[in-house]
Amino acid sequence: MTTTFAVLGAGDRGGAYARWVAANPDRARVVAVAEPNEYRRSALARAHGIPAERVFSSWQELAEAPRLADAAIVATQDSEHVAPAISLAGKGYHLLVEKPLAPSEERCRTLVAAVREAGVLFAVCHVLRYRPYTRLLKRIVDSGRIGAVVSVQHLEPVGWWHHAHAFVRGNWRRSDRASFMLLAKSCHDIDWLRHIVGRPIERVSSFGSLTHFRRENRPDGAADRCLDCAVEPDCPYSAVRLYAGMVRAGRTGWPVSVITDEVTEAGVRLALRDGPYGRCVYACDNDVVDHQVVAMEFAGGITGTFQMVGSSPHADRRTQIFGTRGFIDGDGDRLSIQDFVTGETEQLTVSSLGNDAAAGHGGGDAGLMDAFTTAVAAGDPAAILSGPLESLETHLAVFAAERARLRGTVERVS
Ligand SMILES: NC(=O)c1ccc[n+]([C@@H]2O[C@H](COP(=O)([O-])OP(=O)(O)OC[C@H]3O[C@@H](n4cnc5c(N)ncnc54)[C@H](O)[C@@H]3O)[C@@H](O)[C@H]2O)c1
Which residue's CA is minimally distant from atom 3 of ligand 1? Predict the structure, then answer.
């Protein structure tokens, strides 16, 4: 069976999933799109040969039409997932919904209740679960090879320029317009840790703040825009170096495609002159944290720590898993597994096993689409690695951690 999709929001994420569909015509087809931005809407409609009557300027218009596809991909912004998901679930669309489900606990609960009530297939785009790296790691942990997991340590190095792009200048810079940082970025990691450990998170505490990207840290002589700035050549966060440098190096996709539809050096300079991405990182209206730690206790007393850092190399996550019979150290591609009985260490490299670890989110985007399409074709959720209740549970852990950070408390996840 070929699964048909409606794409709601033809931005960066909607576009990425649609490209998987285009590359897998025997598995899926995009048959409808809803997107207010004319350029993005026409580009996606053209690429998939979608007739005009199934091209809409908003998800609201698409939702008024009779059901047009087997499934919908909800890839609108964070605060605009709940309404389209509930509306389309009611029409019988199976749903692939971008993370986070919603910026509030209450709305996450509402969404999940509605989806369960409608009885449609449902997956959250927690793409890290679907990476070949994660599947291998999970198999090793579940095999008992390192004994029982006692503790886990996980680092998310966001990357200095990625942090500046998305969380200082970009769409996720303010918690009132998108989500707080842990929800916007690291809900992936909290969900992933729950998946790897295989137990719910029960209690959390957290520290973190917006320490660096503040007005008082602005260097002397800095201008409001990088294009006008005398100290720009010496600034690690220069937007000119970042975006123009990427275009010169032939990089035309994310993040350059986020700041301009005209991906040329001239187009970039125009965007930096007027748009949000040309602003000095010390003169933005950002408020989300630039570093945060979460300490957690899983069911059964297993402990874990998570650390998100904006001022870091742009690198993959690193994880250490401590078991009663062994230890695993992973960097997103390489897994090093030490056996406490023999003292020996085995090294496994996921990319060398024939997996495309360089593809979107280390192959997670493709893995998710493959699993979701399999589930829809079979009418069976087995291929989806987290059902609605587990996805809700990990969102609630994130909300509890943020409460703990703000209140200085230890919070129970419930
Ligand atoms: N799974 C992941 O790893 C991952 C990575 C990045 C972002 N995200 C999440 O994906 C979502 C989308 O992020 P993005 O980077 O693609 O953002 P984006 O801004 O590039 O795309 C969102 C699109 O939604 C469109 N839109 C706005 N109102 C609409 C409406 N009423 N109807 C239809 N479309 C509408 C916008 O015009 C835009 O093109 C966000 O919730 C984000 O947090 C997930």
Answer: 127
- 3-state DSSP helix/strand/coil percent for the chain, to nearest 5? 45, 20, 35
Q: Which of 120, 140, 171 is the last residue of a domain?
A: 120
Same domain, 401 and 334: yes
| ∠ CA 247-252-254, rounded to 5° | 110
- Residue 6 Cα to ligand 1 middle (Å): 14
CA of 72 to the centre of ligand 1 (A): 14
Mean pLDDT score of the chain, rounded to an integer?
A: 96
Range of the domain at 253: 222-278
Q: What is the dihedral of CA 380, 363, 107, 179, to 10 degrees?
A: 180
Q: Is the CB of 24 under 6 A from ligand 1?
A: no
What is the C-alpha to C-alpha distance for residues 234 and 322, in angstroms, rounded to an integer?
41
Question: Which pLDDT value is given to residue 93?
Answer: 98
- Quickly list DSSP for 87-103: HHHHTT-EEEEPSSS-S
Cβ atoms of 95 and 76 within 8 Å: the answer is no
Q: Are residues 248 and 349 in the same domain?
A: no
Q: Which residue has the tokens 């989300």?
A: 288
- 334, two tokens: 């390489």
pLDDT at 1 > cutoff 90: no
Taking the model in full, what pTM does it have? 0.95
In tens, the pLDDT along 263-311 reads: 999 999 999 999 999 999 999 999 999 999 999 999 999 999 999 999 9
What is d(CA 190, CA 308) in angstroms, rounded to the nearest whole number?
A: 11
Say whether both 189 and 235 belong to one domain.
Answer: no
| Residue 48 forms part of a structural domain | yes
Q: CA 48, CA 96: separation in Å to the nearest integer?
A: 19
Answer yes or no: are the C-beta atoms of 100 and 187 closer than 8 Å.
yes
pLDDT in tens, 92-123: 999 999 999 999 999 999 999 999 999 999 99
Report the residue among 76, 186, 391 best suited for mutation to probe ligand 1: largest number of ligand atoms under 8 A from its CB. 76
Q: Which atom of ligand 1 is nearest to the CA of 125?
A: 1
Q: How far is the CA of 14 from the centre of ligand 1 (A)?
A: 7
Q: How many domains does the chain have?
A: 3
